[in-house]
Records
---
Amino acid sequence: MQALNVQMREWLGTDYAKYQYYLNLLYSIYSFPNIVLPLVGGLLIDRLSASKMLMVFGLLVCVGQGIFAIGVSARSIWAMVLGRLIFGIGGECLGVAQAKIITDWFKARWLGFALGLNLSFARIGTALNDNISPVIAAHRSGVVGASWTGFGICGLSFASVIWLTYLDRPESRTSAGVRPDTSYKRSDRIQSKTNNIVGRQAINASCDSTMTMSSDALDEEDEIEKEDEMAQDDQMLCSEILTLQPNFWILSLCCIALYGAVVPFIHVSSDFLQKKWYTNNPTKAGTVMVSFDSIPDIVSAIGSPLCGYLVDKFGHRARYIPLSALLLIWAHVQLGLTPISPIVAMFVLGLAYSLFASALWPCIPFLVKDHQLGTAYGLVTIALNISLTVFPLVVASILEITQGSYSHVEMLFIALASVGLLLSILLNVLDHQQGGRLQLIEEPSSGPHHPEEPFEGHRRSSLSEQRLLHDPYNPREPGFEYRRQRRYSRDLLLEENPDMEDVQAMVTTRSVGEGIITVIPHRRRPI
Ligand SMILES: C[C@H](N)C(=O)N[C@@H](CCCCN)C(=O)O
């Protein structure tokens, strides 16, 4: 919208004041419903399935952009508003579903890099939109052409949603050792529970059965039944939201403060930079500002996957957050209170943007249980949208009251970054007291897996870090089912030619009917 500012106003034929009202309305209608809806989206993702919901949200994005483009073609502002509403609901919930799928697949390795790459594509999209939309609109087709180009891109995005849904199907998850999606898991569990019952009845009924069960195997079966029962409870309930740990809520507050110190600034940066540095040279301002505007997004497009990689490689993900808050304070102090050229400050701002975004989102899976992930991502997305709804309005009010004083606006951003700094220090202190879960290193596993290894994947962890892991074999611990599957599939894969005897040593087989057996992977225990 911002990118097509002038051309859109000319196309709609409205005066400046009315157009500013429409512009704000089109932005607010995107963010406002997302103060609540990502929670509903997240709960649906946890209770149904991330890829099914991804389809629904992807469709909403296409429908929303289609209605918006029709509105632009017909010069109907209310159709445009309706389009943005549907687009916003789909877009933010789509982000939640994406994050859930990425976490399911990359939780044990490369999570920071994968989420960083996801952010990188979002930034590239923003930078391309800012720079290409006006060029498209300047041609014969105008803003109508630019809006329908947007619709075409949404169509391409929906095609990749379909492709992703295919890649994320239950069989691929199972063969890759990835935690199955909720709906599949539930039907699978009902089936396995039925099999267990049938198997038990068959064993009990046939005293002359040729199959005898060792007491170990019976213990194992009892444990598996217990796990099944407990897993039935592991459906995300609304009431569980209140039981999420304080660190999760502090992280959400960090999200409000730090995004609030960056995104609303980017929205007004073009006007600010022009007024402060290029007042007497509007021609230069016109050309320079387009690229200046995009510096934080471009730096973040490159920086986010790199920072994500650093987080994976060296851990300490929560420590990057106060560091990024310090960088934000530096950038805003330099921009707001000094006459120094803004280029360096804009780079620093982009670096801080990369650093906190690629550290903050990968913290979430370390703070909630697996079955709460969608809801947790939904809640942090709500925090983000509160920030993106409230602070642009605060900025607009400050500009109105101070008659356009950007120094006062910069003071707001410095204050927000300082609040982010304090909150992130508190987060690190509390996390340290609880053993440093947020600082763990997850790195790609290369060598063989040792039975005594307490957690999935190879990881350098200090003793204090390991203390907090409790019992990774406890089905109530976050990621239990995921770890068991990973162990099982890794054990099979690590054998170059796994022969059947070895495989049999790892599983218990049950005859549950004529010609039907059920295979239960053994749970490995630390030596
Ligand atoms: C408004 C927009 N959705 C946004 O700012 N998103 C955030 C968070 C994306 C999280 C995806 N896992 C961003 O940094 O782009």
Note: The mean pLDDT is 79.
---
Amino acid sequence: MPLRFPRRIRFFTHSLPDLASFNSSSPFLSRLLTFTSNHFAVNFSTQRPNGGETRRSLIEDEEELSNWVTDLRPGTLRVNLTSDDDDDEMDRGRGRNPRNKVESFRENRFSSRGKGSNFMSRGLVRDREGYKGLRNQQRRGGDVIDEESSDEDVKSLVMGGLLSEEDEEEEEDGDYEFLKKKAVSAFGFDKQKKIDVKSSDSYLTKTRFDQYPLSPLSLKALNDAGYETMTVVQEATLPIILKGKDVLAKAKTGTGKTVAFLLPSIEVVVKTPPTSPDNKRPPILALVICPTRELANQAATEANTLLKYHPTIGVQVVIGGTRLGLEQKRMQTNPCQILVATPGRLKDHIENTPGLATRLKGVKVLVLDEADHLLDMGFRKDIERILSAVPKERQTFLFSATVPEEVRQMCLVALRRDHEFINCVHEGTGETHQQVKQMHMIASLDKHFSLLYTLLRAHIADNVDYKVIVFCTTAMVTKLVADLLGELNLNVREIHSRKPQSYRTRVSNEFRKSKGLILVTSDVSARGVDYPDVTLVLQVGLPKDREQYIHRLGRTGRKGKEGEGILLLAPWEEYFLSSLKDLPITKSSLPPTDPETVKKVQKALCHVEMRNKEAAYQAWLGYYNSQKMIGRDKERLVELANEFSRSMGLDNPPAIPKLILGKMGLKNVPGLRAK
Ligand SMILES: Nc1ncnc2c1ncn2[C@@H]1O[C@H](COP(=O)(O)OP(=O)(O)OP(=O)(O)O)[C@@H](O)[C@H]1O
């Protein structure tokens, strides 16, 4: 029986001698303690700068965050109303770095209002109302969030804006490293078992699945699927998981992480005696959480492949963008043992679907796919709610291609203390695939559309079976680029959060099977989606962060195949390259764009609908406003946005509703047109 720690531990100051010095200018301890919030509800005393002692639980701080979000009035909210705000994948990630964002929020917003005992329910209910209120305001005040956007999307919008605002605060964190070492050692994180896996260039190993004690029916399904030997991550994790351990695993994109966590999960279900058919609420035994709908669908498909010869084991998917009622009905008429879900929708079901809370009490295995993303600020509340709904006695698997240091500590909210961290990736150059050629190009914004067209034409000419993904910064910019490339007679499809789920699923399936196609997409396709044989990933504009760059690039070069990645930036975005300096990305000269091409692109731009250009302009402004390096100088930001507007062929930048400008903190900034 693995060691379990009590759920509530009182943390006394004398156990860390210099705890009193962890005051508002040294937020590391509170940051660290928050990571442990699920397993340890920690109380400690701190000395406020004004001298008064405040007894606070860090969980109350979380509630404070919720309360503050709820209390936001339109005029006080500086938020990216216009970008891919409701993009379920992208915007949540804006709050990723807890060090800069959450803590500076805490320092600035802390008050002793909250009392921690029922923090989750209270915080969540308030959050939800707050999001709904905001959403209504937005509908009224400028129609910036469309009907498709889920409450989840709205939440991400609020959090994204909130945190990017906080981002601008400078944090006095000079003694950070020292404190980090002390606290990490005090909590035993330095004893965390880490296994570095030696990986060769090949993603497959020589180890066969039948060398492990797996059920014959699973082996038969693996064989049918053509999975003869294990991939590196499968070989490294399976024996440890089969021993009953919790695992945090980091392995490169496209190397079979889905099978690595699904196979042992299925084995747990196979070994669990079936419940009586009269049981109206049979337990869910394995719960898999994925950050996007596409990914959840994909994981469920893979699960069904592995369950081919286990007809009594069922899989169900609950994702946003579909009617809750339909999913409820499906769950009641055909109860499953394996549930794959996106976090927000699962939280909705926990709160609204009769019997689900009871069924979740049966969970034996919990999986967080793209764990670093799920544990970042944007998803935090939903994940906390889910963690509180499943038993503490369970096995947990966290998988991702990227696990930044600060997120690794956050993983402790979900994992047992004796978990193993299995790292199949060598830091730096090892994080991306050697067989994928990476290049960056720097060109002024006015050249981007012509360059994009030139690069695509050249790639198509060189690759009969071309299959390209173009990543854009926001949903509305994605739409604009897809419209433009369509006008230029390229074979294009688009996926982003403003498209209905049925459309997204259809296009995703089409792209999976096709060749000779270009998919223009926002970050909803950045992580996990397994499109085979993508020949080129083209990223236009600033990726959200280094991790997002790696995940987007990871859509090509999967399963050991060749691939190519191009990052197209404007000169003022070049600073981003410093975060990639350990990756094998080289500077490429710009391909010549002949005047005919430029003319052709300009003509095509004239055919793109004005309202799409307006929406793209607003979205662009919102996205870059949230980027610390660019958004901090508002006048410069507007100059750049107007440069983008001119690149779309507009003489004057589109006018933006005053309410939205206010919400973005851009009121009265010269160069903007308000309406
Ligand atoms: N043992 C195996 N042998 C051959 N192919 C495999 C094996 N395991 C998985 N695959 C295939 O490898 C491909 C990539 O797998 P998967 O999508 O799980 O990668 P991933 O590591 O999760 O990538 P990402 O980090 O992008 O999410 C899939 O098409 C899957 O079917």
Note: The first helix runs from residue 28 to 35.
